[in-house]
Amino acid sequence: MPKTKAAIVAVGTELTTGFVRDANVYYLAKELDALGIEVTTTTMLPDDRPLMREVFLEAMRRSQIVLVTGGLGPTEDDFTKDVLLDLFGGTWHEDAKTLERIKMLLERRNLPLTTINRQQAVVPSSAEVLPNAFGMAPATLYRYDGGILVSMPGVPAEMRGIFETELRPRLASFAGGIIHQQLYVFGVAESLLSARLRDWSSALPEGMALAYLPSMGNVCLRVSYNKELVGSSTVTERMQELYHLLEGEKLLHTDLSFPAYIVNTLTERKQTLSIAESCTGGLVSGKLTGVSGASKVYRGGICTYINAIKEQELSVPHEMLEKYSAVSAPVAEAMARGVREKFGTTYGVATTGYMEMAGDANMTGEVYIGIATQQTVFAHHFVLNQNRQGNQEWSVDRALVELMLVLLP
Amino acid sequence: MPKTKAAIVAVGTELTTGFVRDANVYYLAKELDALGIEVTTTTMLPDDRPLMREVFLEAMRRSQIVLVTGGLGPTEDDFTKDVLLDLFGGTWHEDAKTLERIKMLLERRNLPLTTINRQQAVVPSSAEVLPNAFGMAPATLYRYDGGILVSMPGVPAEMRGIFETELRPRLASFAGGIIHQQLYVFGVAESLLSARLRDWSSALPEGMALAYLPSMGNVCLRVSYNKELVGSSTVTERMQELYHLLEGEKLLHTDLSFPAYIVNTLTERKQTLSIAESCTGGLVSGKLTGVSGASKVYRGGICTYINAIKEQELSVPHEMLEKYSAVSAPVAEAMARGVREKFGTTYGVATTGYMEMAGDANMTGEVYIGIATQQTVFAHHFVLNQNRQGNQEWSVDRALVELMLVLLP
């Protein structure tokens, strides 16, 4: 469907051994998607020369744009430049502007110029150099039949800086003309939705497609179309049919992430929020503060990880904790009410649960999520079945969805 | 160096468009590494039949173990099974045990058995079926010359469940005999370390290797060896040489993550911790509560996202906020002191900063990290240069490293 395809390649043994969790592939996939460029494959591989060569060639065969991150460090296990010299030819060449930048960076930190530092300015003569505003190793760009390969450092800040200042403007000319519309459907299983939409989806015209993106408590229906193949009246018509098929369901049409939707909605309504977390340990709060402008609506949160602090900080009655235990609906409600009053906000959200439990294979944990509004207080109970980290992530997402459901029109 | 190689393939348009951040590849890479199995490539690709076929074949050519996740959903954009039938042959076959399990799961949720549900029990007759304790779609295992390919659902909880109960025991027989030792060096740049260790590292015997894994404020030196090629006396000797070369540096030899190291160390010393967060919004607290047993040492945290709450909850003097602003060393120190007193803990950690700032390309934000101990209170200042999310992640990691430096022997 799209005209332009891209591949992402992330080099580094720290990735294939799970020592660090990738951030670059995720960032680049999102950015390319926003530009309407389809990603064919994303590959992570260790610092291994023959394998790098192989994977670079595969990516070039499949895509007109290949974005490579990593393998440009100063240590002896970084080979990206060598492999690219070998693939694209040329000779080693010291880039004068890069050397100037490296000297400047070192002077700022009061460090001497070492041979290893200087080596960072040496690039294949076949490359076009793209400056790195935040670090030593520059990015390099190579051309092949109908395509470009760009090698960038693996340090996320450096990679993002180069992408934003150098690469995004260049990629605009490749942009694929693919447009997405996202319609979230809450509370309907993917299999039931799929049965209901099968006829509609299989009758979509060439250049228009539906993807099911299920997540916590909802399925995002992502309708993509190529604006050069599908006229806007066709899109309107088909979307109306889709809405008709989904009549009566809880729907949300938005491009925003859930935390951004929450912050935007509260800002528009001049409402505020506070959060009390036990089992999620501050991660719900962290998600919301990841949104620009969160400080307009989010007053604060408290992580009450032990019972005494729940009593001290949220006025949860001692007798209630004794009678029901900390993991109970009454306590989740008392926490939500307590934090709402403490911080004087429109809404209060609370989590309390066990993230690890032994014994039952179908239940590795449980969580109560409490919500306090101006009118009411309630708590919902959920059984968890992942490991500690999975249960925590699940509970964080679920708390956001519970709040979304309260805020939805 | 290792005998057994594995490839990981994650299928799903939601991954290559950046709609969701991968968790499965990261999990599997870590697990395979722990088994001493080397990962050659990890590939993510959209739900695209010809491309899936191509990528599966590449993975099988490179590796004796291929782990595939995703593409097993009930919707019309899920093709993994079709591609595997095509590759490994056989006919469609309804697996009786899987059908039983599906019926049971549906009964539990009071749902009828639909054609789409029933379809989940249909697998290629060439497959060995591995049961999925947490969902409908089973995993399937295929054999090829000297290797196995396993297809698992993409839902993280289901995939992890299958890996833990079915796959890990089978993979033990492939285990590569690779052992890792991790030595963290704090406060030395990777380039300087590399210069110092180059001779040592290039003289390592066959079957022993050094990798540099730089992260926040430290470089992890990861020494890997194949225990069938390198004797234990050689390993001891070489590690002693390494320690000798690093004499005088702040070192830590551990397999633990930093949050786990912090929780373990505080538990051993019978000490406690509390955290006050502004700009990091609860994420430092969240990292610590991700560790099993955190409740023994972590009493609680508070996210004071606006000034009034800093005064109300942490007794930061109003005049101090007026005079120095909330993003300042005195306020970071007052917050650390305030939270330590509020929760009655051995240590208090505080963060305050700007995660977004316009104007200066070399400074997109700044953060002060305050630490209060029984003896002293101090704050350190850091300039940030990523986007909002990157700056937040950086600040979280830095706060953990600041606490690590206080706890290191």
Write down the overall geometry of chain A. Answer: globular
Q: Report the total helices of chain A.
A: 15
Strand order, main sheet of chain A: write it out.
Answer: 2-1-3-8-7-6
The protein's oligomeric status is: homodimer
Mean pLDDT of chain A: 92
- What top-tier CATH class of the largest domain in chain A fits best? Alpha Beta
Largest sheet of chain A: 6 strands, mixed
Largest interface (CB within 8 Å) is between: A-B, 109 and 108 residues
Q: Can you say what the CATH homologous superfamily of the largest domain in chain A is?
A: MoaB/Mog-like domain
Structural class of chain A: alpha/beta
**CATH fold-level name of the largest domain in chain A:** Molybdenum Cofactor Biosythetic Enzyme, Chain A
Distance between the termini of chain A: 35 Å
Our count of domains of chain A comes out at 3
Tell me the CATH architecture of the largest domain in chain A.
3-Layer(aba) Sandwich
Any idea what the radius of gyration of chain A is? Answer: 26 Å
Number of E strands of chain A:
17
Could you give a short description of this structure?
2 copies of one chain form a homodimer. Chain A is an alpha/beta fold and 409 residues long.
Explain what the structure shows.
The structure is a homodimer of 409-residue chains. With 409 residues, chain A is of the alpha/beta class. Chain A has 3 domains: 5-174, Molybdenum Cofactor Biosythetic Enzyme, Chain A (3-Layer(aba) Sandwich), CATH 3.40.980.10; 178-253, Alpha-Beta Plaits, CATH 3.30.70; 258-407, CinA-like (Maf protein, Alpha-Beta Complex). In chain A, 41% of the residues lie in helices and 26% in strands. Chain A contains 15 helices and 17 strands. Chain A has a 6-stranded mixed sheet, sandwiched between helices. Chain A is globular, with a radius of gyration of 26 Å. In chain A, 49% of the residues are buried. The model of chain A has no long low-confidence stretch (mean pLDDT 92). At the A-B interface, helix 1, helix 2, strand 2, helix 3 and helix 6 of A face helix 1, helix 2, strand 2, helix 3 and helix 7 of B. Strand 14 of chain A pairs antiparallel with strand 14 (298-304) of chain B, so a sheet runs across the interface.
